[in-house]
Design brief:
Layout: E1 9-18, H1 22-31, E2 42-44, E3 47-51, E4 63-70, H2 78-82, E5 88-91, E6 94-97, H3 102-114, E7 121-125, E8 138-142, E9 147-152, E10 155-160, H4 171-178, E11 186-189, H5 198-203, E12 207-212, H6 215-227, E13 234-238, H7 241-248, E14 254-259, H8 269-275, E15 276-289, H9 295-305, E16 310-323, E17 326-336
Parallel strand pairs: 6-7, 11-12, 11-14, 12-13, 14-15
Antiparallel strand pairs: 1-3, 1-4, 2-3, 5-6, 7-8, 9-10, 15-17, 16-17
């Protein structure tokens, strides 16, 4: 590979479109903060190739391919400095490392800060997700603070990764669910976090309720509703959703319920059925063995619905691989009274 920065190319994920659609496509990707500024947009055989930072977050309908794209002049990546490629992802201007060796993590952090990545802080995962609030411990290796602004499909989320759970990797799944929402919906997120389901649903005109056990998450949910101009359509509650439904009388209120607590969502199905109106879709997340990833969840939903509802499974969707032989899945299930 040439050392000439103008000519150096790398295989990177790109959105490929007819040349005449290039500017509209670039603008749509830029709105979602998906354009990879480290590589040049190129043209070949009448098609424009727009490098993207996260191919899993590209909206449906775009053609994502791998294409040799020139590295921008003057761009230096961490791997250029290290001679090896560290494992990392970006959340706003925080770079999140996933390195087990402390010396390797420190070297990677120094390289990130020396590189052309737009980073203000570098952290390394110091624990697994733990506790009822599902947060991690972090080693802050460079910069200061763990708060960032994350942009996703036209929404902005202020988030502090030390105080709340947030996964940018689930952007495409959130977009899939929210794409089903319309302005007539009463949208209830039982484990809402900072609002990555609630905020875009409210932007589509739905009346939304978000509940979370973590007071910090609820604080950020309210802030993000204001930040995105949907505070008039979002109600946030702190506490166990079972107690909140008892206290606030949401029985029969919802036309759409999100249950993104995959290790234990089945424990909340009785409450979800209480929330359901005459016609309601549950988005039920689960983690199961690959031999039968959907059966346990479907059985639990049917048992909870009992004779009160007809149960129709509309979608059986694999979200991602969770662990060897285990899948993170979603069931979109319609309950009709």
């Amino acid at each position: 590979m040439s050392d000439d920065r103008d000519r150096r190319t790398e295989p990177v994920p790109c959105v490929a479109v007819p040349r005449e659609d290039g500017e509209a496509t670039r603008a749509a990707l830029a709105e979602r903060d998906l354009v990879d500024g480290d590589h040049r947009i190129t043209v070949a055989d009448g098609r424009l190739y727009v490098p993207v930072t996260d191919p899993t977050a590209v909206p449906d309908g775009f053609d994502v391919v791998t294409h040799e794209s020139p590295v921008r002049e003057g761009q230096t990546l961490p791997e250029d400095i290290l001679g090896w490629a560290p494992t990392y992802e970006r959340l706003g201007r925080i770079v999140i490392l996933d390195e087990d060796d402390p010396e390797r993590a420190r070297a990677a952090a120094d390289a990130v800060m020396e590189s052309s990545l737009p980073a203000e802080t570098v952290v390394n995962r110091a624990s697994k997700v733990k506790g009822e609030t599902r947060v991690r411990d972090w080693d802050v290796l460079a910069g200061d603070g763990t708060e960032a602004v994350h942009r996703e499909y036209g929404c902005e989320f202020l988030v502090d990764i030390a105080e709340v759970y947030f996964s940018p990797r689930l952007a495409t799944e959130r977009h899939r669910v929210v794409g089903q929402v319309d302005a007539e919906d009463h949208f209830f997120d039982m484990f809402a976090g900072v609002g990555p389901f609630v905020i875009p649903a409210a932007k589509r005109g739905a009346r939304c309720v978000g509940v979370d056990l973590n007071p910090a998450a609820v604080r950020y949910l309210r802030e993000n509703a204001e930040r995105n101009g949907v505070a008039d359509r979002v109600t946030a509650h702190e506490g166990d959703v079972r107690a909140v439904v008892d206290r606030e009388d949401y029985d029969g209120w919802a036309s759409r319920v999100v249950m993104n607590l995959p290790h234990s969502a089945d424990e909340f199905l009785e409450t979800a059925v209480r929330l359901a109106g005459d016609d309601c879709v549950l988005h039920y997340y689960d983690i199961q063995h690959e031999d039968d990833p959907f059966g346990p969840g479907e059985g639990a939903i049917r048992e909870a619905a009992g004779d009160a509802y007809d149960v129709t499974v509309e979608t059986r969707h694999e979200v991602r691989s969770y662990a060897p032989h285990e899948l993170n899945v979603c069931l979109d299930v319609r309950l009709t009274r």
